[in-house]
Amino acid sequence: MTLSPHSQQAIEVNGRRYAWPQAPVVVVCVDGCEPDYLVQARRAGVTPWLDSVLSRYGALTGDSVVPSFTNPNNVSIVTGVPPSVHGICGNYFYDVTTGGEVMMNDPAYLRAPTLLAAFAQAGAVVAAVTAKDKLRRLLGHGLRGICFSAEKADQATLADGGIDHALDLVGRPLPSVYSADLSEFVFAASVALLKTRRPDLMYLSTTDYVQHKAAPGTTEANDFYAMMDGYLGRMDALGAVIGLTADHGMSAKTDAAGQPQVLYLQQILDERLGAGSTRVILPITDPYVVHHGALGSFATVYAASAFGSSVQEVLSVQPGVEQVLPREEAAQRFELPTDRIGDWVVLGDHLTVFGTRPADHDLSALDVPLRSHGGLSEQKVPLLFNRPLQGVDAGRRLRNFDVFDLVLNHTLAST
Fold first, then answer.
1. Domain architecture of the chain: domains with CATH
2. Is 415 or 85 the better-scoring residue by pLDDT?
3. Average pLDDT, the chain
């Protein structure tokens, strides 16, 4: 194998050192991949590549970032650090500097560089392909390489995305954002890029459309993982060193009758403390509400000073509320930036999600029982590799944002 002229360099990013890849490295973030999805697909016999890898090397589990949402976890993975360092603590937040509620997908909110950008700056060929366009600008910040979304692959250009004619390269039509095809496009793109560009480093991020709709072991879920398994096998055959993890897990959020189990926090606080006394923020909020109706198991609450302790008193006794933590305690426990979360952080149990008021959530598109995420019950995620690991401390707490460290510094292909 001909190695890159930069192949002996180690890159330091955000206080962590990463070895230069000795073969193409592909890190995959499977959105919403509760570990049981892999277990059930393997039991169904539909994932031969996965079965081979797990039989030879086993698998680990790690913890995602809390809140267990897409943006904070994907950014943690590509920076190698928690939100307290990189600043992205949700999909959506209340910007106290402007007094407005905004999407947290602008790179202006990013407080740390990505290792994708750092490797590219050092001379590596780097590519990132994400399912949803909401992540593209964050993942591609400072990246001199390829970065485009499946959602808007038809709009990718050499000037804005590092690639022209992405649809022709992939050989698939533009997928619907609400489909399993969106994720399949990401995998197909990765195989095409390995064949034509052979990146030193590639990051893939899928969508959790299937995981929001289908539980582990269902036909729809197993079909998705069978599709994924086929593409991973093709990447492996092309010589890629693969590290796979997830941004968060997924849980059913329903009562015994299968109806959404929702606590409308703003309505509760308005009734108990008075309208205008608090502001509830739901960090799961994004443009893709068909998935989840903007209902997740993590919320933050801003309170007028006179009502501070009353928020905890009112919410902590609500059925389905697991924890109500003051800002400083929540920031320390979950490694969050104190200036971007509310006075209180509220976590739901494994069956409960939070809304603001019923009128604020359109659930008409939920054609199956609600499945969502955001809390501690969706924190466990897989970590698996198609090479053996070495030199990993057995007592180390593993996080999903350790995946680049593990695949670059601890697989046999990195030595």
1. 15-250+375-414 (3.40.720.10), 262-372 (3.30.1360.110)
2. 85
3. 93
